[in-house]
Design brief:
With 665 residues, the chain is of the alpha+beta class. The protein is built from 17 helices and 25 strands.
Length: 665
Amino acid sequence: MNTFKIRRRLVCSAVWSSLALLSACGGGGGGSDSPVTPPPPAAEVPALSSQCQSNSVARLVQPAALQAGRNQELSLLACAGHRLSQLRWEQKEGTALNALSARSQSITLEPAAAGSHRFELSYQDELGRSFSASLPLTVAADTNPAALRAVLRGEPSVHAGGKFSLRAWLPGLSEADLTKATWRWEQLEGPSLDLGGASGARLLATAPASSSDSLLRLRASADLGDGRSASGEFSLLVQALPPLPANPLFASNETPSRVYPYKASSTRTAALSECIYHPGLSSSNPNNLCTLGKLPLLGSASSSNGTPTVDEIMDRVLVSNDWMGANFERFLREQDTHGDFRRMLASVTAVVIGGRVRPAFYWSATGAIYLDAANLWLTPEQRDTVSETPDPRSDNGSALNYASPWRYVKDNRHAITSLAVAKRASRNLEDVQNALGSLLYHELSHAADFLPPRVHASLLGSSSRVYEAVPAQTASEQLNQRYPFFSLEMRGLARVLSYGDTPTAAQIAYQPEDVVRFFSQDRVNDDYSYSVPSGANFSREDTAMLVEEALMQLRLGVWRDYAVTNKLSSGGNSADLLVSWGQRGRIGEAAIRPRLDLVLKELMPWLPANFSAGLAAPQALRAGASWGANLDQAALQAGKIKPLSAQQRYNEQEQTTRALLRGSR
């Protein structure tokens, strides 16, 4: 494919060069005197309206009048043969309305009071032509503010085939009343949608296939069983995908989120749009993946001796909503006090933050990290735009007769607090530090493993794709050669837990004490470290887990618990599991330290040589006590078993229990 693309470009260059040369010869008197026929004038594009007319580029769908206290969606749909970009809905007049999706083709508004407003809508078509329209909006007063009403919230647009979620709310109702509500979801308009994922006030669904932009109109109705009822509607824009290659890089079960470059003024906007999360990227061989010459590593192009500035990083960020970029920028400026994340981001080409990216990942095909925006929201309104669609990884270990729970703790409490969606709570930037920090240390370790700092300078302008530029003897390869792990049993179990292999009869028969014997005598810090993909002979998760746990303890003072317990029962909570063996801070084991030192020297060379010496010795968890009781080690050492609070049990349910159910880290 490299040859074909180069040839095609050279042919184009040759053709254009020849045309230019002929024109120059003609200008010198040696060409034809025949008159040049001017091109026909471009067809006039009619004013934006609710219908696609002859030569229309787009059409606008909006309610005739908005109603206070209700959600209402405004959508710009591309007409046949056209594609839209550079969207912006900018409010010019009236009391400020919160339009969080203001750079997408659809926005949802929820005005609190009557009034007049005006938005300016601007966009471009596939030819780069710019258009704009002034949109006056009138909000009618709520004539019966005491009446029960339903409000539907969610991201108002989705790619065809993409997974999405919506949630219905009954504002002003007590929690006790909310538990009485029975909900019914129905489709009113648009291509057929499977509503089988409706459960109470929440709908999980997959957008139907569509060759053109279309609207789904949905209704959710609530009955409280005491004569009170309410209903609300939501218009979801389903955006048609561009023509797909034979082997899309992002398969049909992982349709890319709709994202755009956060900094519209960045000189890399075109490359970001084409190279990172475009549905047209191909996994074929040959393929159309971008070279490091077209989109270099941040470290290669940095003006600061290989360490990108925050501004340089933000020029490489793609988001599905502006708030994601704003919060990420704040995180880098306020929470990256040691500069680790800026330095580690030198190994990526871009950062994607999406409301439908789940799970997060790094991909050597593009050189980018893809982050779940669930780790960044600060307000309930921001959270409304993040999908509730669960991690698609299945319960791979359901047949096994043990569990291996883990969690992060600080001061004998959960280091991460989970907040129920129904509470509509806010959180501070400090509240996301531990969850986002552990995620970044892990995924950026993968990036630095593939393209370590020692090669960045040599890759500027390279004609290689990311995966073609990976050097010999990466940290993971050296780790496997010099300090390999030993347990073949754990490696086999990782094939079940991480990749969904069917467990053998012997694996199903393993009891917790067997797994303790396999794992505790080895020199890895987590069973995810044993994950070796088909066709590979070493693990890259081994490296990432070492870095993640070590940096969380040494930089943030957060320790990692890991244990082997009995099997999690259906509907159970991880807090009630019984610990057979476990440790807090296993990364401090003497046998693990040399492995960590090797990895840190390669991936994070700015750290001092004795950095790992700051790790504390591991603490043993209490065998025979529950996983929940082991949270407060101080209480156990004082001879007390401290019962978990409702919030702590919820933390367990949302963090450890869910991780066990999906077999993920």
